[in-house]
Amino acid sequence: MALRRKGLDSQVVVIGCGISGVAAAQRLVKHGFRNVRVLEATGRSGGRIKTGSLGDKIIEIGANWIHGPSEDNPVFCLSRQYGLLEPAALTAENQAMDIKGHPPWVPGWFSSSGKKLRAEDTYPAVSMFAELLDESAEFHSRGGEPRASVGDFIRAEALKRVAEEWKDEEASTRAMRLCVVSNMLKVECCVNGTHTMDQVGLGAFGLYRTLPGLDCTFPGGYEGLIQNLMSELPQGLVAYRQPVSCIHWSDTEGDNEPVVVECEDGQKITADHVVVTVPLGYLKKHRAKLFRPPLPLHKLHSIQRMGFGTNNKIFVEFDSPWWDMDCEVIYLVWEDEENLVDQVADIKRSWIKKLFGFTVLKPAERYGHVLCGWIAGREAEHMETLPEQEVAQSIAQLIRRFTGNPTITPRKVLRSQWFHDPWTCGSYTYPARGCSAQDLNNLMEPLPSKGTQSRPLQVLFAGEATHPCYYSTVHGALLSGWREADRLISHYSSSGPAEIPRPKL
Ligand code: 6YU
Fold this sequence. Notes:
The protein is α/β, with parallel strands linked by helices and about 500 residues long. It has 2 domains: about 5-50 and about 220-305 and about 430-490, FAD/NAD(P)-binding domain, CATH 3.50.50.60; about 100-210 and about 310-415, Polyamine Oxidase, Chain A, domain 2 (Alpha-Beta Complex). It has 18 helices and 22 strands. The chain is globular, with a radius of gyration of 24 Å. The model is unreliable at about 495-505 (pLDDT under 50). Bound molecules: FAD-MDL72527 adduct. FAD-MDL72527 adduct (6YU) binds next to helix 2, helix 8, strand 15 and helix 18.
């Protein structure tokens, strides 16, 4: 592709050094752009890809899995290229498995009276819930939504089907299955990163696309992907601890002034193009002061309309396992939740009821006996404010109650705090009630908007929230960074001598 010299000399500032910012910078540098800088608020690269440790064990504080590790997933392809994955994840069988976002994990079921539930007893509720989720995703292509939210739809349909299909069951069996549906709703709150499924738009739910492949993890940590990508960038390209406070662009016709990026320390950096990759949570909170002039109204409204919620993890280590050796996920079913609830009435007192259960970190030879608890929504945000010791106590009480074993004591506990992270303000994006594909288009639209006569492509937008169907994921974020780099590359490609080779992927 031929690029005009000015293109390669143009000053590009990328704001944020998460995977989308790294991907944008890497693509531009590979194409020969000479003046690319990344400004990152924190002291590290990776953003919501954040590998930490619990004692001597590697844990993921942020992104966990490659969702859909197969040939169309660039995160999978790059990780394979860098040698970051285990052989099992690379097999053709693994790549071909179409799990539609729901890994077939071996479950262990526990109830709040300390009983173990049999998988065959919970199965009717689990399969009905899976059907309802699939149906929820269909309204997008069918058009029209009978209810405003996924939560409303699932609740209404579940009650109808329970009355018809389980009418001959004993009342206690029916009640227990309804409690299982409440648990499944809480699982979905974590998957979607929302407070309640009542906030997830029914018509837009099906915008999200899954890729084939059984989700896999990184034995050496997800941050290995960032380190490998960073090693392809020139030293010193990223300025760390450099939060940006305001982007001064222009919507005035004929104005050819550069964009000015103002940093919190008062530094002003001029640029021909700025690629903004800050999370939607940050944009929602700071949208008014981050842009001068303010963003166009349609963009502002879409930032407000789209959902961005919290999903947190609580890692818990034990001396010995209290779950079955083959168990991969533990579900905790509250026996007083027949009324299909996914939110807690008294958050301060009962926030722990929102934790749907735990995934088991495997293999045990690597992780020992570590579980990862999952909690979404305002309950998760409240959990972040508590001392870690208090969180540990609540977890111990919970497990003792559900197992009926009063001696179980966690050895170590560590939780994530994504809502109070000032540069993220939550976990990831979901399509809220009333959202449509147009909102995602508006989020990714560069400034100035189409049809405006001022200098084009002053400010571009990448980041997971800007991907039309892979929002909320690492591959969505990566692809959005490449997309905006390509936008600049093709902007300058109309004439000129330089022949720039396209990088692989
Ligand atoms: C995935 C997974 N995963 C768990 C948890 C979380 C997320 N995701 P970044 O935030 O990375 O970078 C922005 C940078 O900008 C950052 O460094 C800031 O410091 C900086 N910044 C901010 N303000 C600034 C300023 N003013 N100046 C300068 N710099 C500034 N994704 O693929 N697999 O298992 C999970 C999970 C707890 C928190 C995840 C997962 C989401 C990804 O982590 C996330 O999308 C990307 O890392 C974002 O990269 P980025 O570059 O855009 O931003 C309908 C329907 C269903 C849809 N949902 C399906 C489920 C999929 C989600 N699954 C998630 C599950 C887990 C467990």
